[in-house]
Each structure stands twice: as structure tokens, then as C-alpha cells.
Amino acid sequence: VLRSLGIPTRVITNFNSAHDSNINLSIDKYIDISGKTLHLTEDSVWNFHVWNESWFIRRDLGSFYDGWQVLDATPQERSKGIYQCGPASTRAIKEGDVNLDYDSSFVFAAVNADCVTWIHYSNKRKERIYSNTRKIGKFISTKAVGTNSRVDVTANYKYPEVREISFKISYSQYKNSLMDDRKILVTAV
């Protein structure tokens, strides 16, 4: 429909798409002390989810948010009392502006949520035992113009993952004395 009105529109596929039902930016899984899954949340991770993007000027949000906007025709949660999602600015999602209207927090979680596993004790106490910050929002894709090739648009939604590397550096290089090799943790982009 939007294309017929002359508005640029494309289909987007997000692999490992989070469905954050309580908008806490975390996909929580609860287990008991024996490892049995407890169904205490509606959060889930889908193999993929598909939505549309359309190119809009955003006078309501300011020109910083012009460009591709997420419109989900199959919203899974109510927004302002009805099932709707968008138009959420992809720029807002990338910048983490989750307090904007138009469901930016829901879309942010769909591509950035952490997957967290908790042990839920009988006394209602819980303990985090596992967290994966890199599982969600992989290979966010659209179809290339004029061909069936995939175009990766992940960088429109999130900055590259920060990964940690380590290496040894000898302090003796800096101090003319013999010292133990030290392991230094370096963050690289």
C-alpha cells in the first residue's frame, strides 16, 4: 500500500528476534533448582520475525529521526491499548532512544535484548546464572534491488558488537627490569 502511494518501502527480516513482553529489554527464562523450566514470563526468541520499513520525514520527532521507519503489520503486544507497532525510527533504535513514542523500545528489544536465565527459588528469590548479550538481532536483512540477493542492514539497527581480545605484554619493555608478563584486556570495535 505504501509503495502504491509513492513511499519507499522494503521488507526486513530479523533473525533471533526477541519478543520482550514486559519491555524490560531482557528475555528472561526461569528455571527451578533442578533445572526444570518455569513458565513465569511470556518472553520468547523467535528464529526470525519480519516487518516493513518505510522512508519518512519525521516532523513529529525531529529531522534527526528522518529515514527508515519500522512498521510491523503483525504486532505481538498492545501499544496504547491496541495492537500496533510503529512507525519507529531505525535511527532511534540504533541510538537506544527507547523513550520515544511509536514502540521504539519494543523494536529495540527485538534486535538488542539480552537473554538471561534465572534460578527461581521457592522463597521467591531469584539468581541470575547466565546472560547472553549477543544472541539477539542477527543478520537483519532485506532483499537487494533487482536481484534475489540478501542485503545486510544490521548496521542500521545497531552498532557493531564490541568484542574482547586479550594478549600478553611484557612490562620489561617499558621498565628496564624483568617483571612477570601481564595479561591485559583490551576492548576492540
From TrEMBL:
It comes from Hemiprocne comata. PANTHER family: PROTEIN-GLUTAMINE GAMMA-GLUTAMYLTRANSFERASE (PTHR11590), PROTEIN-GLUTAMINE GAMMA-GLUTAMYLTRANSFERASE 6 (PTHR11590:SF50). This is TGM3L glutamyltransferase. Residues 1-75 form the Transglutaminase-like domain. SUPFAM superfamilies: Cysteine proteinases (SSF54001). One of its GO terms (cellular component) is cytoplasm. Keywords: Transferase. GO terms for molecular function: protein-glutamine gamma-glutamyltransferase activity. The gene is Tgm6.
